[in-house]
Amino acid sequence: MTPLHLSKRVFLNVLLMLGLVCTAAQAQVTWQTTATTISGYNSGSCTLLNGTVKYKVFPAYLDVEEDVEIGTSGTVTTGNDPNTLEIVATFSLPAGATIIGGLLWDGDRLLEGKLLDRGVADSIYEDLVNRNSTPPPRPRDPMIIELTGTNTYRLRVYPVALGHSRHFRLRYQLPPKIGVDGFEIRMQAAIIPLFTPTSTTVTVSMLNGGGVDSVVYVESGLKRVLSLPRTLFLARSALTASAAAGSSALRILPIDPARQVAVKTSFYDGNFAGNFLNLYAGVSEDVLKDLGQRVEVVIFWKWHNPATWIQHTSSGEQITSYVTTAQSQASQILSLYSSLGVPGNRVGLLHDNSANEPRTFPVAANTEASYQQAMDYLRSLQGSYAEQFARSLQVLPGNGGLPLDWIPVSKNNFLKSIRLVKTLYSPDQNVVRHLIMVSVGPEYATADASLNDSLNQIFSDMPFTLSTMKNWGYDQAGFDLWGARSNHAYSGTLVSTTYADVPGFSATNVILTVRNELNSYDFTIPCTGGLGLTCSSLEFHGKSDYLWNDTLQWKAYRSSTGALVGAATTTPKKIAPDQDTATAVLWAGSTAPFSEKKELPLGPIYGFVDKWANLLATDKDTLGQLAYVYADSGVPRIVNQNINDVIPNYDGTNSPSTSISDALTASMRNSAFWRIEHGRGDLLFVRIPGLKAGLQAEIELFDLSGKRVGSWNSLSESGFLKWNISGIRGGAYLLRVKISGIQGVKRIAL
Questions:
Q1: How far is CA 21 from CA 32, 135, 168, 337, 664, in A?
Q2: pLDDT in tens, 669-690
Q3: Tell me, what CATH number does 286's domain have?
């Protein structure tokens, strides 16, 4: 599989600024004079006169129209022409976004942006601007947009007079990703957020682009369901790329969110011919469960005889130590509970105060309603609650001694509570169940331990482990806590928190296998261990002549030993529009589009601005009679079906930015670019970006102890190496490849 873009795109946390043309300290859209032969170059600030953003919502992307009118202000140095200024803006879009169209107003005329070879487009634009004329004549109106860096673009419009404005409209496509809530699409704008003040509101329209009647809209972490169409009024700052991380970003979630989504489409002929897969895969709770990587913790908190916690003596009421103990436990259980419920970990609660029916909360992750309800309940028990509760009960005379007939009652209540505890766990298989027991209050001690057998019988079909909180125990008539702990001790990884030791996770590598009818591709998703399991997500963008499978295969390996932990199969939510150009653009514009065969430069074929092609609008590109169609809304999508229409002299070898040798060096030093493929029989392929045919490669395979288990010599083919691994057992290994004195190492699973 050949990667077509060698540089990783990163979603910028700040908008990049073009520092060379700014006299206003905070301005990010500026004007500049173009003549350098008269009174020297000078520049000034621009203002946003009008700006609107229209989002057409599709199931797997946003189709955005951003309409902008920019005015100029300030002064021009005497001798320079105030009527031939140039507007310059540098902006960023998220990784995988694509600019797919643009319109420029020239009076009442509409000029349509076209794709041209970046060198040709820049030459045409500069000829029209004619920076060295004295004074510059009014040229034909050009607008140019070019990719200047990773996810960064520069827009230039010429001419504009001082105190006047220019009007243009951009169309771009925003991709989805896996975020904190699963599959989501983040909203932003390109040009409008560049202006100050950021408090000025912008009109934002959200429309049903196709098959989306309503969405979950998230702003500043607040979620609400919106029916489409909907008009919003948002601050400019809310539409910046700086909201890239976490729940603070403007986001759109589907009504039925998923952590694994496969976006597919197929074309049967033409330059698009093939089967496209855009996979967005997060490690879900179900995957962790099936991989044996989920822990369920229930806290069983017992208040024994709270009516005795306030004692009446000749000197008046006295608060016993049980009250202060209950207050301390309440605070510590709240803290412990708040630390649980992280990915891979679910927590539940049973609180029995002996006066009322026990309060129960089933195991849940911190994103679920039951978890939040339990937290609210625990918060209500803080501070003076225990004292007030004890005072509300009828106290016993004297020293509050317990009647002897309380023992069978206490035992029966214990068994009732344990049966309730069992119901709080999920019925899922292949999970670790842990019980934390803690109590406060006076309780008889008995010599028998009959309840231990009863506990084991209740949980006979559901293995569990048991512990207490630090510094606290669990008192119960007829129950031997220490014997129970010994019989139900946890033998795996324990994570020590401030108030309890709980089952945890070792660092794990999850291998996700994506298959089509002929080939399979393995991807490593690292997971950091601890109280929970924090895993990365995977984006895979593939094109094949063969249909992609609907299922995904998962395997988990211990990072420390390489031992297999478990395996799982999932079926992602499928979005499959028929012959959908936008889905193909999601593939082509992604950070790493992979194809099983050689592909031409993608921007010119699929119709978006990239390192090969700029968008240029001149007066030759007028829409003519079609102008009225787009006067108020819409931008024609760029369509180019022949690369020679854009790059007439393309020969399939030259690159505008990266030589093959540089690409190979970068790829060898960063094995994250490598892709491992299993072929027929025992054939194994490693795809290395920039690898030419005919290079001699030395291949070595080591187990995780460092022992070499095999070595091969392979003559490279274009983009890949292949060799036969017959006799090599399955498991985790280190793969080392040496080519022309350069080596790289990658961890793989066979």
A1: 7, 20, 21, 54, 37
A2: 677 678 888 877 788 889 887 7
A3: 2.60.40
